[in-house]
Amino acid sequence: MDPALLRLEPWTDADLALLRLVNTPEMRRHTGGPEDEERMLVRHRRYLDFVPSGTGCMYRVVLEPEGVAVGTVGYAERTWRGDTVHEMGWNVLPPYQGRGIAAVAARAAVEAAARTGRHRYLHAFPSVDNPASNAVCRRAGFTLLGETDFEFPPGRWMRSNDWRVDLRALPAD
User: Fold this and answer.
1) How many CA atoms lie within 13 A of 59 on its CB side?
2) 104: phi > 0 → left, psi -120 to 50 → alpha, else beta; which?
């Protein structure tokens, strides 16, 4: 995937429709299944608050030249093993999967998180049973630290891989 063909746009209120598209059994099979409307609206409001609160940023992933939203990527603060870090997640809609979009979008979001200078590390925690998301981590430049038990969504534990990027080790722009 040519990075020039992807654009990350900050999350807006209009992106609730995109959030609904990624809230399906197929898209959320590794993360506890679809959320009910109330939880999805809470998630949407949290995404909208990331930038004003300074805790992260959620993006819609736009494919050019069509200008169509094909997924989401973002990062937010979390406490992990006693440190405040960024945690990243992504989704690519089924018709666009398998093209390298998630890896290019994840890398662009990693670079955006690094520019904030807020935290040294950014982690991703894909399920050990999710080969596609683990491949995204590898292709986006994350380092595998090993397996861990991870709570996502709240109240649901899963076996995940802990992937990390040292944001301070990235080349300066």
Assistant:
1) 24
2) alpha
Could you give the maximum distance between any two Cα atoms of the chain, in Å?
Answer: 43
Q: How do residues 112-132 score in pLDDT, each as one tens digit?
A: 999 999 999 999 999 999 999
pLDDT band for position 173 (cuts 50, 70, 90)? low
pTM score, two decimals?
Answer: 0.93
Query: DSSP readout, 17-83?
Result: HHHHHH-STTTTTTTTSPPPHHHHHHHHHHHHHHHHHTSEEEEEEEETTTTEEEEEEEEEEEEETTE
- Category of 168 on φ-ψ map: left (φ > 0), alpha (ψ -120 to 50) or beta: alpha
- The span from the first CA to the last CA of the chain, in angstroms, equals 21
For residue 23, count other CB atoms closer than 10 A to its CB.
Answer: 19
Mention every residue, 6+ apart, whose C-beta is less than 8 A from residue 92.
61, 70, 71, 101, 102, 105
